[in-house]
Amino acid sequence: MREMIKMVVVLSCICGVAGAALAFLKDGTAVKIEEQVLTFVQGPAIKNVFADYDNDPIMDRKKFDVPGTDAKVTVFPYMKGGKLLAVAMEDFGGGFGDDIGVMVGFDANEDKLIGIGITTSKETPGVGTRVAEPGFTKQFKGHATAGVELSSKGGDISGVSGATFSSIGSVIAVQNAVKKYDTLKQEIQGAW
């Protein structure tokens, strides 16, 4: 009995030390991980969405609370001559392999999209990954924020042949971003 109690105490101590070490490591690397995501994931997608900006959208980004949830959304501004012309935010939709991350750009003066860029995707190479190609992404440029939907569901966005889940996930990510943008529009426009 005494041996069993000793083993439980030792095992509990080992688990406690390992848990504390993992928590410390996570806190210690969080800033570096965020920096890497901004540089190598979101940065290239922002360049696909925006062109000719005077500012640094990554450095000028701001976080906003999404009303009615505990979530925060990071918004990247597109400025020219010191004037806010557009913003971008990332959202996600379920794909075939995993969630698809989509950076969605919004015109700050009109209710229309300026474009999208795929940030993360674990879709099937050569099939689902085609949602990141210009043939699919260019359909969103200049599209009204209302009514973004695949043609198979009554909209005007043509899905990628053979990549139904990837197309649906991408459109859902855009729709989610549109909902957040509509909710935060006034706050976003007053932030820069």
Quick take:
With 192 residues, this protein is of the alpha+beta class.
Annotation, overall tally of beta strands:
5
C-alpha geometry: globular
The residue-averaged pLDDT reads: 91
Estimated structural class: alpha+beta
Strand residue percentage = 15-25%
What's the total helix number? 3
Are there runs of 5+ residues with pLDDT below 50, and where? none
Largest sheet: 5 strands, antiparallel
Distance between the termini: 67 Å
Rg, Å, rounded: 21 Å
Order of helices and strands: HEEEEEHH
Can you tell me the number of structural domains?
1
Strand order in the sheet with the most strands: 1-2-3-4-5
Share of helix, binned: 40-55%
Question: How is the secondary structure organized here?
Answer:
Layout: H1 2-49, E1 62-65, E2 72-80, E3 83-94, E4 99-107, E5 113-120, H2 134-137, H3 164-189
Antiparallel strand pairs: 1-2, 2-3, 3-4, 4-5
Describe this structure in words.
By secondary structure, the protein is of the alpha+beta class. It has one domain (47-189). Helix content is 41%, strand content 22%. The chain contains three helices and five strands. It has a five-stranded antiparallel sheet with strand order 1-2-3-4-5. Strand 3 (83-94) and strand 4 (99-107) form a beta hairpin. The mean pLDDT is 91.
